[in-house]
Design a protein that fits this description.
By secondary structure, the protein is an alpha/beta fold. Helices cover 36% and strands 27% of the residues.
């Protein structure tokens, strides 16, 4: 399942959820070409892997969250487990590389 996360829902949707399953967070923006290329890959991961929570954070709408995690370039992917970051990547990655990072 794919969720759009805000600073108001971040603790519940990412930190709390990561106690029971890995959470893949995509920091993106609507004007970002590479973000648009990555989006269908993340949609596939969300649809094919019910054990992975996929979340999207729009950096233009949530600059505080982007700053909190020092997101300097987009798309940035962060993997959370038990409330901690266990993986990260910047830029477009193939689906297999993203899944490897999550697992």
């Amino acid at each position: 399942m794919l969720k759009h996360v805000t600073k108001d829902t971040f603790v519940n949707d990412v930190l709390e959820a990561s106690k029971t399953q890995p959470v893949l967070v995509d920091f993106w923006a609507s004007w970002c070409g590479p973000c648009k290329m990555l989006s269908p890959i993340l949609d596939q991961i969300a649809a094919e892997n019910p054990g992975i929570q996929v979340c999207k954070i729009n950096v233009d709408e949530e600059p505080d969250l982007a700053g909190q995690f020092q997101v300097m370039s987009i798309p940035t992917l962060l993997v959370f487990r038990d409330g901690k970051i266990t993986g990260s990547s910047v830029g477009v990655r193939p689906k297999d590389a993203i899944l490897q990072m999550v697992k």
